[in-house]
## 1
Amino acid sequence: MVRTLIAGNWKMNGSPASLAVIEAVVAGLGEGGPADCLICPPATLIAQAADAARGSLLAIGGQDCHAVESGAHTGDIAAEMLAGAGASHVILGHSERRADHNETDAIVAAKAEAALRAGLTPIVCVGESLEQREAGETLSVIDAQLAGSLPDSFANAGFVVAYEPIWAIGTGKVADTTQIGEVHAAIRQTLAKRFGSTGEGAPILYGGSMKPGNAAEILAVDDVNGGLIGGASLKAEDFLAIYAAAQ
Ligand code: 13P
């Protein structure tokens, strides 16, 4: 049994006033249930969010980290800094970072090693563009991203993979359950073959326009072990409704 993870990615959204959302999620989770819950706010809010979530079921994560521990990298944040601020997870290789910052699979793999070095659980994102899907390349694109973005050290570590079809992110378009099931089954097969039992136990999250209204259906698909939620994680009520759908 893979434990479900409901994770929010706030992207470049959130001000100190948004800590009220963290507090509302903490209160709403209460004793919680069989799923884990995580919010990844912008780096500026991680320490305060972690303080607000301390002792609760809500974990706090980062949205990116640098591959090295310290040095002359203006504007970057080391995995160790995220851990020091109270983060337990870090999202890596999100399609927006691959596009905005030219992150390659090799860069993502180096960041994933850094996350493990700092004691963080990496959440590595993969996903095809609409053009790649229409060309019938989805599974080969995903396989190449997994091969290049996941370091060999994942065989001995806790990690998470998120499948986020680029065309479904922030568009209101959701992959249908057949499409999701096909990709998640292929990811599971690849992970199990390469990493053995850690690959069999790693949660595989779906991300892309997941909302309270479609969460139950998506979470019921085989090999879907949770969600990575953008827009709907900015409102406590919506995010908690998605969490409730995971029960
Ligand atoms: P949306 O839920 O806003 O489509 O974003 C998904 C995503 O990119 C999460 O990382």
## 2
Amino acid sequence: MRVLITGGAGFVGSHLVDAHLAKGDEVVVVDDLSTGRLENIGEHVAAGRVRFLQGKAEDPAIIDPAFDGVGLVYHLAAAVGVFQILAHPLASIRTNLDASSAVFERAAARGIRTLFASTSEVYGKNVSDALNEDDDTIYGATKVNRWLYAVSKATDEFLALGYHQELGLPVTVVRLFNTTGPRQTGAYGMVVPRFVRQAIEGRPLTVYGDGGQMRCFTNVHDVVAALMALTATPAAVGEVVNVGNPREISIGDLAALVCGIVGSDSKVQLVDYESAYGKGFEDMRRRVPDVSRLRKLIGFVPTTPLEATIREIAAEIAAEIAPGR
Ligand code: UDP
């Protein structure tokens, strides 16, 4: 089968590329390399295993040829990370909405099985014990750019479900909860690679706010396995599905855990939100997935321990900064 992955040079996308190639599929990648990195898929491209089209998923000159002979689509291309969204609000909203329309339109016209990568951000300020896909979304004011990402991804979800309802697009919407692992760059927010790099380099770990905010971190390999299983599950068509590891940890405890694993005596430096993100930023206090729908659909949920994921990231960063490289 030929698989199209938009955002395939990015963090999650490139791991998905690896997994589909390992299965023997052909892979086409569309990526504008705004946050994705060619080196993530460089070897595959050089060896002719991946057809790489560099450009915007909303550009017909890119996306039309990309659909040639495709039997499965993952739409991952999107504005990534809180820093990026705060710095470039217009481009972020355009990317998220225009690219999704372009991809869903073509996939619907051809009846191609599609997976859309949304985010746990769409729950907004809802801090329930375990967020269920049918729970309310709660957003702040439109003057606060923070909510632009959540609202644009939620609008993409409406688009995907609208294409499903009215034009029969066989789509599954997944909400990813703080996915992390090798190849994730800390440049756009992403707390785990940031802390690991800070610890390895002996710099202070920048904990924003009081460090009491809670998150659940999911290993990227678990996420890829779940996404592939979902696209092979007919009952997942037309569904919105949380993908995450339900184990919860505070950001303060994450900092201590990273230092312990890396063997670093770096100290924690508390940074107020305004210094980190600028004025008027609102952080989510808590975000925990209810994964019962995922378990029911595919029979498993992400379970890789955060400790193992931190070790994987640390090994990659240590190799990268080793002397002689
Ligand atoms: N965070 C932090 N220090 C950093 C980067 C992030 O304390 O250097 C916090 C951030 O404020 C948030 C959590 O870690 O509460 C997770 O941030 P990330 O950007 O990884 O993902 P988010 O959950 O915001 O989508």
